[in-house]
Each structure stands twice: as structure tokens, then as C-alpha cells.
Design brief:
Blueprint lengths: L2 H22 L2 H18 L4 H11 L5 H23 L3 H6 L1 E4 L1 H8 L5 E5 L18 E5 L5 H12 L4 E4 L3 H9 L4 E5 L9 E5 L2 E5 L2 H9 L3 E8 L5 E5 L12 H21 L21
Parallel strand pairs: 1-9, 2-5, 2-8, 3-4, 3-5
Antiparallel strand pairs: 6-7, 8-9
């Protein structure tokens, strides 16, 4: 028997069993259980905690230990609430507790007729974008396959059941351009670490590797970029906050101009992180290779 076959099932089926139990329980109770698992077990056992703590301390050196611990624990609470929204809350209920702010910016960009790049980040509940097709926003997202194919298939089923279209990351530019030619909105996580192939630029005060793709496609094909983020409010409702489009028709498709565009995207990402620091995905090693906090 293939080793991965067994491991995949040992991971997946207990998860589905727990999910079935949580869906059977009253919503408030199931949410409380998930939050407890993340904030007590996940945080308590230190799962990725030192990564998040180190990066938070670097970006916010003036915070005292009390503030740091409070935000750090809330990072885990935010992750828990995202899991609840993704796997327990129905699309209809998720839509009911959501509002879209700044949709006029997205519609103005779509009127250009070339498609739109929705530049977002691992911020707030980014996976909640699955409901946007329910309000007639033709959204596609670029997704990297998960190691566990059972999880991958199940998660993609949830993502696509209300009309979201998935682009396999392996299709790269070809898949993205195909959807943009249909005047669709293609969402890209602009805060991912691009490794050695990326552009090294400042992010939250430190050099970080950035993917060129967002800027390159925008400049080469004159495609507007709309920065957008899903903010979780204090009452657990969600706000899709869409910003004015970034469009640089006079800039040539050159690397020095990619920096200009990416800096504008970063300004939006950083502003939302500073306003809601616990809603960013601090457990991800954003500065790895470009500025490694963990080799000191």
C-alpha cells in the first residue's frame, strides 16, 4: 500500500468526523470549541507560535510583552474563526453576515474590459471570497494544490460550490490570462514569499521577496489591479473592503516599473495590517531568505 495513501486517510477521515460533530452541535458551541482548540491547544503547544512572535516583535519593537501576547493569541483566534467560516458556515449564512465596501471600484475596473487582478493577502478571512460569485462578481482564484489530495478535493469543493472558479497554480500565466480574457476577476495573494526568483523590496520595514506576476501582467496587458481585503469586524461580521484601482498605462513592462506597482499594492496591504495586526497570517515566514529572523 502506498504510504501517502494511508497518511492522507489518517489525516482526512478524523477531520471529517470532527467536522460532522461540529456541524451537528449548535453553532455557538461548535465555534467556541474550534476557538478553544486553536487558542489553547495550538497556541499552548507553540504550533508556529515562535515564528509569529519573532516576526511581530520585529515589526512592532515598541510593544510590551502584554500587548505582544494579546495580539499573538488573537492571531490564533482569527485563524480559528476562519476555519469555522470555511468548513462550518454555509455560503448563504456567510453572505448574510458580509458586506461589500467599495464595489464601485471593482465595477469601474471591469468596465475596462480586460479583466481585473484582485490583489489581496493572507489577511482577515481571505477564503470568504468564495461567496462573491453569489453577488455576480465573476471571481477566479489561483490555488496551489495541497499535499493531501483528499483535503485538496474537499476544500476546493467548498470553494467552488457557489460559482468560484479555481486556477491551478501550475497553469500559471496561461490559466490566469485565459480567465482575464473573459473579463473575470482573478484574485492573487500578493504577500506570498517568492523565494530566490522574486523581487527584493521592503515589506513592513524589512526586505522581502515579492512575486513579479501581479505587476508584470498589469503592465504588459494593461490590466487594472484592485486591492481588496476581507476584514473581520468585532461582531464577527465581514467587510469586503475594495480600494481604488491601480492602473499605470504609461509605464513600460520593465522590472524597475514592477517595483512602482508592487509598492502601491504593498501600501494597501501594510495599511490594513497595521490597522488590524492580529488579522494577518503571522505564522507564515514572510521574510524567509530575504531577511531571515530565525538564523540569529
Amino acid at each position: 500500500m502506498d504510504k501517502n495513501f494511508l497518511i492522507n486517510r489518517l489525516e482526512y477521515y478524523p477531520f471529517r468526523a470532527l467536522l460532522a460533530l461540529l456541524r451537528f452541535l449548535p453553532y455557538r458551541l461548535s465555534k467556541a470549541i474550534v476557538v478553544w482548540l486553536f487558542t489553547t491547544i495550538g497556541y499552548g503547544l507553540g504550533i508556529r507560535r515562535e515564528v509569529a512572535k519573532t516576526q511581530l516583535k520585529a515589526v512592532y519593537p515598541d510593544w510590551d510583552n502584554k500587548k505582544l501576547k494579546s495580539v499573538l493569541k488573537d492571531v490564533y483566534r482569527q485563524m480559528a474563526l476562519n476555519i469555522v467560516d470555511e468548513y462550518i458556515v454555509s455560503d448563504e449564512d456567510l453572505l448574510y453576515k458580509s458586506e461589500i465596501k467599495g464595489e464601485e471600484h471593482l465595477q469601474a475596473a471591469l468596465k475596462e474590459g480586460r479583466g481585473v487582478i484582485l490583489a489581496t493577502a493572507h489577511f482577515g478571512n481571505w477564503e470568504a471570497a468564495r461567496i462573491l460569485p453569489m453577488v455576480d462578481i465573476p471571481l477566479s482564484v489561483i490555488v496551489k494544490k495541497q499535499r493531501n489530495t483528499l483535503f485538496d478535493d474537499y476544500t476546493n469543493m467548498i470553494r467552488t460550490r457557489s460559482g468560484l472558479r479555481i486556477i491551478d497554480m501550475k497553469r500559471g500565466l496561461r490559466g490566469m490570462m485565459s480567465d482575464l480574457k473573459e473579463n473575470r476577476v482573478v484574485a492573487i495573494l500578493a504577500d506570498q514569499n517568492a523565494g530566490r526568483r522574486g523581487l527584493i523590496m521592503d515589506f513592513l520595514g524589512y526586505p522581502a521577496s515579492h512575486w513579479k506576476g501581479v505587476a508584470k501582467i498589469s503592465l504588459r496587458y494593461k490590466i487594472p489591479i484592485v486591492p481588496g481585503f476581507v476584514v473581520r469586524n468585532s461582531d464577527d461580521t465581514l467587510t469586503f473592503d475594495l480600494q481604488e484601482m491601480i492602473m499605470e498605462p504609461d509605464l513600460a513592462d520593465e522590472e524597475e516599473n514592477y517595483v512602482v506597482v508592487l509598492e502601491k499594492v504593498n501600501q494597501h496591504v501594510e495599511r490594513f495590517i497595521h490597522e488590524y495586526p492580529s488579522q494577518w497570517f503571522w505564522v507564515h515566514k514572510r521574510w524567509k531568505r530575504a531577511h531571515d529572523f530565525f538564523e540569529r
